[in-house]
Amino acid sequence: MRILVVEDEQKLNGIIHRGLSEEGYVVDSAYDGKEGLYLAKNIPFDLIILDVMLPKKTGITVSRELREERIHTPILMLTAKDTVEDRVAGLDAGADDYLIKPFAFNELLARIRSLLRRRGPVESLIFQAGALRMDVKTREVTVNGVSLELTNKEFIILEYFMKNPKQVITRMMLEERAWSYESDTVSNVVDVYIRRLRKKIQQAGGDDPIQTIRGAGYRLKIL
Predict the structure, then answer these.
(1) How far is CA 192 from CA 15, 105, 153, 204, in A?
(2) How many angstroms separate the CA atoms of 133 and 192, rounded?
(3) What percentage of the chain reaches a pLDDT higher than 90?
(4) 99 near 111, Cβ under 8 Å?
């Protein structure tokens, strides 16, 4: 899951960024409304955390413009103002939920989980590709019942493959999914992680399910 945090208070932005990263989310940060709007329109996020009072463009404006562009990514608004009028303004602009500052991080996580559950039909949380099985909810991956110990990045990459079997997936698609736009990824980082995944799957007794498509990227085979 990839989350955009648009918050101009750098300390709070950093706290949210680190906390969500530790929970296994891929997190991008923006510090003003203009930057936040640009990222939200050009990167497929699963959720946006959006402060109301932002420089350059307010959170209300950002939310309204996203909805006008038919971008329906769930939006959780943050605000220091606790009045009915403020909440109504945010909801009318397209926000899905509101959280008043200061807040407990556990409450933020609960609001995020709630919003992610609301998105359209509930997608399957268990994926199978031959002997390879992934439970997204428990983050357990097995090959013929043998558990794989995966890093967060390895899990995110494999999850993307499992959700898109037989589809050609480019290196750029994997970079955009597993790394934030601020990261300085080296050119072969995706290849390195693919090799690690293949090695772990094969060491657990499975066949290599990831097919290299020369000049295009990779594809998950259904063995």
Answers:
(1) 30, 34, 11, 19
(2) 22
(3) 48
(4) yes
Burial class, 143, CB count within 10 angstroms (exposed 0-12 / middle 13-18 / buried 19+): buried
Distance CA 33, CA 216 (A): 35
**pLDDT tens digits, residue range 71-120?**
889 999 998 877 777 778 888 889 999 899 999 999 999 999 989 887 65
Q: Which residues contact 201 (CB under 8 A, 6 or more apart)?
A: 132, 143, 148, 207, 208, 209
Tell me the CATH number for domain 126-220: 1.10.10.10
**Buried/exposed code over 187-206 (b: 16+ C-beta within 10 A; e: otherwise):** eebbeebbeebbebbeebeb
- CA angle 217/218/221 to nearest 5° reads 155
CATH architecture of 2-118: 3-Layer(aba) Sandwich (3.40)
In degrees to the nearest 10, what's the CA dihedral of 46, 23, 129, 207? 130
CA 56 to chain centre: 25
- Domains of the chain, by residue range, sit at 2-118, 126-220
Distance CA 128, CA 137 (A): 14
Name the region of 222 (left: φ>0; alpha: ψ -120 to 50; beta: rest).
Answer: beta
Return d(Cα 79, Cα 81) in angstroms, integer: 5
Q: Which amino acid is at 73?
A: T
Q: How far is CA 136 from CA 1, 120, 124, in A?
A: 11, 18, 9
